[in-house]
Description:
Largest sheet: 3 strands, antiparallel
Oligomer: single chain
Structural class: mainly alpha
Number of strands: 3
Radius of gyration: 33 Å
Strand order of the largest sheet: 1-2-3
Helix content: 40-55%
Shape: elongated
Amino acid sequence: MTDHHPTTAQATAQAAPGWYPDGSGGQRWWDGRGWTDHTAPAPAPAAPTGAAIVRPTLPAGTSVDNAWVWVVSLIMVVASLPFFFFDMSGYMRAIIEAEVSGSTSGIPSVMANYFVFLAVTQVLGLAAWGFTVFAAFRDYKHLESVGVVRPFHWAFAFIPYTIVYLIGRHVVLRKVVRTAGWPLWAHIASYGLVFVAAIVWAMVVMQSMFNDLMYMSFT
């Protein structure tokens, strides 16, 4: 048997047993002291990993935004509306009156209304979330139909932060078509709108509570 030896480049690491090229297109086992009669075919070339997805550019003017993505973008505003219809002033007024008068007769009905409101808002929130996922799925299918290769996956809409899907969608689309990404920016703007509206609503409620306290203090 020909006395094979590992290459010079392997000299520093060949002390450990292992498979090494035997010069004939195969491999032979080096047991740490010498070559054995054990041979094996050369390993198959490793499949490339992390290969970039090739996404062909879409024709100019391709419409990538549709009604479904606008549903995804703006449904948060709709889902936030019930919050502003809760009678927080009436709720706090009943609590204050009970504290002042010592009578809790009005508390049960107020608490019942409060829990009904919570239940309704929870159901509406879940419905809005489910509809968002469905709208993302329809948007995904639309993007496939206009030629987008592997659009950002609609299942990311299951994450209860819609902006994750919209950002991923925008990043993918920017690679294949010129798009301003208005659904994403409109969604970000809606965060600001809801935030400002919540502050104004809280200020109105606090003012109403203050007026009730002043009235009770004089009566």
